[in-house]
Structure formats: structure tokens, C-alpha cells
UniProtKB/TrEMBL annotation:
SUPFAM superfamilies: YceI-like (SSF101874). The lineage of its organism: Bacteria, Pseudomonadati, Bacteroidota, Sphingobacteriia, Sphingobacteriales. This is Polyisoprenoid-binding protein YceI. InterPro entries: Lipid/polyisoprenoid-bd_YceI, TTHA0802/YceI-like_sf. Keywords: Signal. The keyword Signal applies.
Amino acid sequence: MKLKITSLALLLIVAATSAFKAKPVSYKVDTEKSTLTWVGKKLTGSHNGTIDLQSGELLFDGKKLTGGNFAINMTTIKDADKSANLEKHLKADDFFGADKFAASTFAIRKIVSGSGNIVNVTGDLTIKGVSNPVTFPATIVWNADGTVTATAEKVIVDRTKYGIKYRSKGMFPDVGDKMIYDEFELAIKLVAKK
């Protein structure tokens, strides 16, 4: 009988502790201080540029990242060389279809702690209404002003998984030297504050 009461007391303590678990603290992404850059490569060279972030949130339990999300404004795709034709083409239906799909999103699903301030982030990236899991390393830095910076220097995305097949050698083997590589790179820097 004594064992049953002790077991019941322990069960109640564990349940009470779980019920009062601290809610993660939300840090809002500052879209003015945050950046997102892209690089796309083709057989004969590459292009790079920027895209504006629309919104975002990072969730922390103490200083441990526990979740978050962000939205990308696809209508703001810019080419570093200021090619209006390239920008128009990237916003067109055969690439990102920005008229119909004005936002792409990323939602964190899993975080695995690495060494120091590095974490491995897995989440759902949604482009053109299609979601696929993406995993990448990110660095979390707490700044003196109370903000937090999350940086992912090289996020690799396979565009064909989102239905973007324009000049893909995998989809069109006879494309020759006009081929555009299926994978493009994103570099993400999120600055967030409570």
C-alpha cells in the first residue's frame, strides 16, 4: 500500500511539473535588419541577389531555440546585376510564379543541438504551394542589445521538388549548355527581438 501511495505521489508530481512547463518565448523577426540572399547556377555562370522577408518568429526556451517560422515575399526577388529581364523571369510561372504565389514559407519542425551555438534545423519549406523538408545548420548568437541572430549560410534547395523545371538537365536532357542546375542556395540571417 505504501508503494502505491508513493508511486501515485510521484506520478502527480511529474504531471504537475509537466502542466506548468514554461511556454516558449516568442522573438519577432525584424524584417529590416534580416536578410535573405540567393545564388542560382547554370552551366555557363551564375546569378545572385536578394529577396525580402515578410515576417517571422523564433521561439526560445531560455536560450534554446525550440521552433519558429518565416515568410518570404517572392514579389521582391532582386538580381544583384539589376537585370530587369531576369527578375521578371524569376517571378514568372516557369520559376516562382510570384503573381499567384506571393509568399514562400519555412516552418521549423525539429532542432538538434550541435556543438557550441550551432543547431541543425529541419523544417518544411513551401514554394509555389508545395512543401518539402529541408535540413541545414544554423548559428544562434545572443547580442548585447537583447536581440538574437540566427544565421544559416548555405541552405540547399532542389527547385524541381517544387515543380520548377525550367532548363533542368534532369528533366530535359537535351537542354545542352543552356542548362540551369536544379539546386540553388539561400543564405538566411534572421535578427529577432522579444
